[in-house]
Amino acid sequence: MRQEPSIFDDDTELLVAEVAEEFLRRIEEGKNPKVADYAARYPSIAENLRQILPVLTMVGSSQDVWPGRDGARDEDMPRQQILGDFRLLREVGRGGMGVVYEAHELSLGRRVALKVLPFVAVLDPHQLKRFKMEAQITACLHHTHIVPVFSVGCERGVYYYAMQYIEGRSLASIVRELRQYSNHEIPTNEKDNRSPKTGLSDLTKRLLTARSTHSSEFVRSVTQLCIQAADALQYAHDMGVVHRDIKPSNILLDEQGHLWITDFGLAQYRTNTATVLTRPGDVLGTIRYMSPEQVAGRNTMVDHRTDIYALGATLFELLSLEPVFAHQERHRLMNSIEMDEPRSLHSLNPAVPKDLETIVLKAIAKDPIRRYASCKALVEDLRRFLEHRTIEARRPSIGERLAKWVRRHGALVSAAVGVLVVAVVALSISTVIIWQEKARTEAALIRAEKEHQRAQTHYEKAREAVDEITHIVEQQSTSFTAVRETRRGLLQKALQFHGSLLETNSQDPDVMVETCQSYLRIGSIHMKLGQYDEAEKAYTSAIEIGNGVQRIRPEHARLQGLLGDCTEALSEALREQGKLTESVEKQRQAIEILEQIGIQKPTDRNHQERLLSAYKRLAETLLWMAELEPAVKATQKVVEFQRQLTRRYPGDIFYQTEVAVRQAEMAQIIWITGKRNKALDLAYEAVRRMEHIAENFPEQMNRQYSHVRARIILADLLRRTEQKQEANQHYDTAKVFHQKLLSLPAEDSSHLWLRSWNEIVLACFQLANGQTDEAIEIFLQASQHKEEAIALEPHNHDFLRSAAGDYCRLGLLLAKQNRLDEAQQVYVRAQSLCEQLAFETPDSLEHKAILVLLHTGFCDLHQRRGQDEEALNSIQLAMQLQDELVRICPLSGRWSRRLGWGAGNLALRDLYILLGGMLTKSGQAEQADEAFRKASNIEINENEALIYKFGVSAFGWHRWMRTDPGIP
Amino acid sequence: MTKNNSESAELHDLLHEARAGNVAAFEQLFQRHRDTLRQIVALRMDPRLSSRVDASDIIQDAHAVAIERFADYLERQPVSFHVWLRQIVQDQLLMAYRRHMRADRRTIHREIPLPERSSVALAERLTEHGPTASQQVTRAEQIRRVRVALRQLVDEDREILLLRHFEQLSHKEIGYILHLEPAAARKRYGRALIRLGKIMRDMGLTESQL
Are strands A110-117 and A158-164 parallel, antiparallel or unpaired? Predict the structure, then answer.
């Protein structure tokens, strides 16, 4: 739709509307208004009138759409009333105590705002006197941010205040409008006529045109407004006047962006007017901002600090667009004000920094003593915040909160405090609240009120605290030793947090979902700590609870996604422990759940990617289990998915390259099952695809790392079928491509990783070709890239593991080429990496497998140096470890492909043979026989053997192995 | 604009009863307006939405919200009953659009995208008292021309014209329904008129040609 820019200011539009209305009215009255007359009368809009009035002559109005309206139409123009010296022009608003009109002061000829107060007539003489006095004092308040009161009058029993007329809006109205924009965005469209933006001052413009309420711009603007208000209040307090009714609807912003506080000192009269004159609906609006002492009826305690509370509550609402307490029912609201802790400002609006939140919390402290002693103090702290200086306010210490809690729940104290103190160390307030809550629900009577609202608040607070911690953890990326302890310690504390969030007895589905979520988090922290069995327990608990929710409320919005996450996480935890069969089972379950969700959200891209990666992981695990056919099937599913995604998002070459890579990998598996021709065909197709992509997207080379891999896989297969020339050609092409990739800037650690991976693949091909020296050079490059990646992400366990594995292989190669010292260096580095892994992921099977490799390498090194005894030690160590591994996880085929080494039992067998050979050499014939016997007793799975052979021959180990004497 | 006295008295009684907690009274009140509201909603549902949701569904949602807020309305009575209901219905319509048509995430529906059908209704109303003296143009052609003109307005403009002329609401009532101050509603109306006037001039439509 063509939208014409409005070059008319508001006045023109208003005028046109008014003239049009008059015109229409005339017509309705049966008169015959002439367009020309109006055009002459209003020359500034004559053109517009000439265009539009003729149309209006045709407008129908006789037929009423609304059946029997219940009363007359709400009049636009009220009949003009005279009240004392004032002519009432129009109603401007309605408040709890009366109606506000725009009026014309006859004697002075000025525009005023007239607040009519019907209740005053009902006051007794004593109160009336007080009212008059208060009015006089209020009239004496002269402050730039207080609406001046001109006069108070009484006419025919009706009392009224005449004040300066402020053209503007209340903060309540602004908040209401901001709330409408669900994305927290504020319309930047100047033509959007919802808010009168023309002629506004910088401040309000900034307030209303900050792009979003979730921005520091907005937060600062709001803070500045608050300072203005607090300033005014301080002045009033100095004059001995307490407002008592500070709230967003009593604070106005005029069109210059100037803040005004209105309605001083009237609130005290409200309590006397629980009559028909006051509309009870307004009371709710006021109660919301009442201080606890007001709510409790302790009027003697109501002083200037009540205003500070109310201002704090207003500030809270401005910043978050939510009131501090949002209950809609009077008693619950009052109860909340007295008893409940406010929600976390930061979680409602992330742009609100800690310091500001602290200030707000201090202002709305329940105990007046805990608040700012004066508005001046509040202003100072707010200023400090704006100037990025340290604020004075401190969050209440654990001790203070504890004391308060103890006072309230004496009986429960002894039991809980001991545990509390332990849990509370270095934790924030939130956990205390949670314990409070737990104790309360345990000991309290059954409430009608839903507990989940409260729980939500606490979860938010607690999670916020944990986010802090995790953030710090994430940031630690420098020195290795210094950080290890801290990181672990912090993660442990995070565990404690989440532990305290577990509401295990609740039957409320929402609470249960939160608990499930917490278990999930706990599980992932355990994973980070390498405590895989603990992780398994946590995930299992999470699933149990999730199933519980399933029984009660299966349609809960977050449930399915959560169950999917938990099941997959459990699968991962099982995998790390080597429980591969169970892992596969869980992974299949997770996929089922994800498929279900996928049906409901067919176009959700993120979801599809998730499903895709779930299938990938399944395929990987199956391969490790040497379940070749199922692995092929799963990989086919992956390819299918990626093809779908390719079709849907043709511009995103990621999916296309993925299809090609998966095909190449599938080609390898298919080769292992014996279907060589099919495998070759697939490999060719994969490479063709890659070429096609390279041709068509030359500018996106940095997303085509996998091109090298696909090509090398083809080259390798060709080599195995003795088509050496063609194989080498592909190798050369791949190498050139890789060089091109190296010339691009590496964007992040993943690029470094991919480079390293490509280099390993290239090196292995050369190795299989017998070009050992060249292979070593490329291997060294690969290690270099891995080190760079590790430098960027020192706790990335995948990096660490694969680097360690690489070094072990490299060491063997170097040793073979008689570069013994270099081999030693490389082993030492591998060892240090293993140590780090051992510390961070003590239960991981992978690093144990690497240790096997490492010790085998040491053994080899010792042998070459003629240190036979050390060599024997090393190999026995290696065997011990391998034995352990095999016991835990017989299907340890995973290592065959990645490390080119031991497929579980096979590796063990080879080790025993190796050992036997060495024992024979050193003359220990009996032990040698023992070793050989063990070797022959080991059961070999056929598929495992195939994979092993494939893997071994891919990396040329067979050459190395066979050269050792004594192997039968 | 006629006031049906006896009917309004009856409605007044119903409100009174409803205030006293008589749920049946509320339902009766609601029933009276249900059909009109349904028509009004139907006018504003474009095919993309109506393929997913029915006008009655939206009225149902509005009904639920109205019940919730009725006590509050009774206490405050900011506007007349049907206007209050109308606002709730308008909001529900907008929410239905937001909920069901989020394909283009960049546009946050601030206005209800009015379908052609609403322009028809509006065009008819705008030309109701067309000068039959000028027989150069048939009524159908009149309506067509106005429709073409209306099509070139933005949703916001058409909405305000619909509310003002089709539903015969005052600016204060319109303001309430659209969550605007009355002054802002009046300005919008003025703006819509100005734009419509320009469009018609650009189309070369003068009084005699309509």
Answer: antiparallel
Where does residue A586 rank: exposed (0-12), middle (13-18), buried (19+ CB within 10 A)? Answer: buried
What the block records as the tokens of A960 is 């190395």
Is some CB atom of chain B closer than 8 A to the CB atom of A744? no
Among A409-423, A434-448, A799-813, the range scoring the smallest mean pLDDT is: A409-423
On whether the CB atoms of residues A541 and A533 are closer than 8 A, the answer is no
- In angstroms, the CA A274 to CA A66 distance is 36
CA-based nearest residue to B160, from B201, B126, B204: B126
Mean of pLDDT values over A929-936: 80
Q: Taking a C-beta distance cutoff of 8 angstroms, is the pair A393, A362 a contact?
A: yes
Backbone angles phi, psi at A250, to 5 degrees: -100, 5
The burial class, CB within 10 Å (0-12 / 13-18 / 19+), for B149 is buried
Q: For the CA atoms of chain A, what is the radius of gyration? A: 39
Rg (CA), chain B: 19
A30: DSSP letter: T
What pLDDT does A602 receive?
75
Mutation test of the interface with chain B: which of A6, A13, A329, choosing the one with the most B Cβ atoms within 10 A?
A13
A48–B194: do the CB atoms touch at under 8 Å? yes
Instruction: Count interface pairs A-B at CB distance under 8 A.
Output: 180
Put simply, the chain A residues between 224 and 283 with a CB less than 8 A from any chain B CB are 279-282
Burial letters for A637-661: b for 16+ Cβ neighbours within 10 Å, e otherwise?
bbbebbeebbeeeeeebbbbbbbbb
- All structural domains of chain B, each given as residue ranges with its CATH number in brackets, are 3-107 (1.10.1740.10), 116-209 (1.10.10.10)
Interface of A with B in 185-204 (CB under 8 A): 185, 187, 192-194, 196
Q: How far is A798 from chain B (nearest CA, A)?
A: 37
Nearest to A754 by CA among A803, A705, A702: A705
Give the span between the Cα atoms of A658 and A704, in whole angstroms. 9
Are B171 and A70 a contacting pair at CB < 8 A?
no
Mutate to test the interface with A, among B16, B193, B208 (most CBs of A within 10 A): B193
**Residue A24 Cα, gap to closest chain B Cα (Å):** 11
Active centre residues of A (catalytic): 245
Work out the angle at residue A768's Cα, subtended by the Cα atoms of residues A766 and A773, and round it to the nearest 5 degrees.
45
Cβ atoms B186, A14 nearer than 8 A: yes
Most confident of A119-123, A474-478, A709-713, A766-770: A709-713
Average pLDDT over residues A262-278: 52
